[in-house]
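pls design
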């Protein structure tokens, strides 16, 4: 599919009009394996940012999973057996998540924790995230917490058929998250599916745009990308400022 123009290459920087908040925060919710990460990756790619080195990136993606809280020894044992509920809002370090998003909104450089799905633990070192023009936060419960939900300037919900999600989750969790089929199905039926219905699905109503079929929905993704580009397109007055100075104070 042809894309009109790619932000960050020939086009001016994504700093935008005075009335467009910077960074522009986009929340991307949806059930497990619905394609949230894939949709974000496509948006980033179509904004011409996929190949940009992290320090200079104007668009970046954060996963809510980075903010899973540290478990106590008893919880950790349950996690190993597939009996800890990672789909419940209590599984997250909401204070850290909210504080980090506030810092991002204030254009601060932050450290995003790195979460290891195999060990169910946060790694010792996180990832540095520099101020960006567009920040996407994807996760099953990004619209659940009102303080977080209210921070987003655009809210997307990826709506993929549950059978498709389960089959993708099985393949992914075996390949990438060190699981066996029996534990995946046990966790899914006892915890993941009920929590999806109780906590995630009811947040669909907060979405500005619902994306059926996830990353396969190129029409929806194109429209969203065009909208972001339109919002971020500098006016003539701003264009002069871009040519003479960086608005970000970040190395290129
Ligand atoms: N449209 C698609 N077609 C085939 N596989 C897909 C598609 N979208 C996502 N996947 C695969 O499904 C799994 C979950 O996708 P992902 O984007 O990580 O979902 P989420 O972030 O919602 O968990 C991944 O292994 C991914 O490669
Ligand atoms: O240690 C863990 C942490 C999380 N999970 C599962 O991950 C998904 C959320 O990630 P998606 O990429 O959105 O699928 C959630 O459903 C948890 O059950 C896990 O299994 N183990």
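designed seq:
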């Amino acid at each position: 599919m042809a894309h009109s123009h790619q932000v960050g290459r020939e086009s001016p920087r994504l700093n935008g009009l005075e009335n467009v908040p910077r960074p522009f925060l986009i929340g991307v919710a949806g059930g497990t394996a619905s394609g949230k990460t894939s949709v974000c990756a496509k948006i980033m790619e179509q904004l011409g940012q996929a190949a940009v080195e992290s320090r200079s990136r104007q668009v970046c993606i954060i996963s809510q999973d980075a903010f899973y809280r540290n478990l106590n020894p008893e919880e950790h044992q349950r996690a190993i057996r597939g009996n800890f509920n990672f789909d419940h809002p209590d599984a997250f370090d909401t204070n850290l998540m909210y504080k980090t998003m506030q810092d991002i909104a204030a254009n601060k450089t932050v450290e995003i924790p790195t979460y290891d799905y195999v060990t169910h633990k946060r790694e010792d070192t996180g990832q540095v995230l520099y101020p960006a023009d567009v920040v996407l936060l994807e996760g099953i419960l990004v619209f659940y917490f009102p303080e977080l939900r209210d921070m987003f300037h655009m809210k997307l919900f990826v709506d993929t058929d549950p059978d498709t999600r389960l089959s993708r989750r099985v393949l992914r969790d075996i390949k990438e998250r060190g699981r066996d089929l029996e534990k995946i199905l046990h966790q899914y039926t006892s915890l993941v599916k009920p929590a999806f219905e109780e906590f995630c699905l009811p947040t669909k109503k907060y979405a500005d745009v619902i994306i059926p079929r996830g990353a396969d929905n190129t029409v929806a993704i194109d429209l969203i990308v065009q909208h972001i580009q339109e919002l971020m397109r500098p006016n003539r007055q701003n264009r002069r400022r871009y040519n003479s100075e960086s608005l970000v104070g970040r190395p290129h």
